[in-house]
Amino acid sequence: MRLGQSSTNNRNIDYPKLWDHVSRQFECELDSIHGPTHWRRVEENGLAIAPHSGAIVEVVRLFAVFHDSRREHDGYDTTHGARGAGFAASLRGVLFDLPDEEMKLLQYACTWHTYGKLNQDPTIGTCWDSDRLDLWRVGIQPSSRYMSTGHGRELAETRVFPTRSRRH
């Protein structure tokens, strides 16, 4: 499989077990604006974008759970993404596995997701768009100019956010 192509869910990742483990390790309150409820919305957003972008679904789903998982507080924290990438690396081969190239995508997406950049890689772009489409939770209207994928831009422009009405 080439990078940027959707893959099938054939890695036998036990997502409920992974989510439970990562959630139990989360240092903030579980109802934090960066906590598991947010991660679920990011996952749903990513799953809505991936069929249009050609993203690697497993990376998108793993990004959702790891990208904010190592936050120590809800304030300004520029290194939480890198800590999330490191946490993912520590669980690779234990609670999930990915080929090396896909793991590199996951780590890059986690490390750099808060810097407002765009990315042409369909998987990284999908990860970042899926997080940015959930900015409404903190009173920020997602903007199409900060979306990397065509479908992310479309969702932001039409203000149709896959998970806005659901708060798990």
General description of the model:
This protein is mainly α and 168 residues long. The chain has one domain: Hypothetical protein af1432 (Orthogonal Bundle), CATH 1.10.3210.10. 50% of the residues lie in helices and 0% in strands. It has 7 helices and no strands. The longest helix is centred in the N-terminal third of the chain and has 18 residues, at 36-53. The N and C termini lie far apart (34 Å). The model is unreliable at 1-9 (pLDDT under 50).
Give the name of the CATH superfamily: Hypothetical protein af1432
The general outline is globular
Q: Using DSSP, what is the number of strands?
A: 0
The number of helical runs is: 7
Report on the biggest sheet. Answer: none
CATH fold name? Hypothetical protein af1432
Sketch the topology as an H/E string, one letter per element.
Answer: HHHHHHH
Low-confidence sequence ranges: 1-9
What does the secondary structure layout of this molecule look like, with pairings?
Blueprint: H1 15-25, H2 36-53, H3 57-66, H4 80-91, H5 100-112, H6 122-132, H7 150-158
Fill in the keyword field for this structure.
disordered N terminus; Hypothetical protein af1432; 7 helices; 50% helix; 168 residues; single chain; mainly alpha
Short précis:
By secondary structure, the chain is mainly alpha-helical. The chain has helices spanning 15-25, 36-53, 57-66, 80-91, 100-112, 122-132, 150-158.
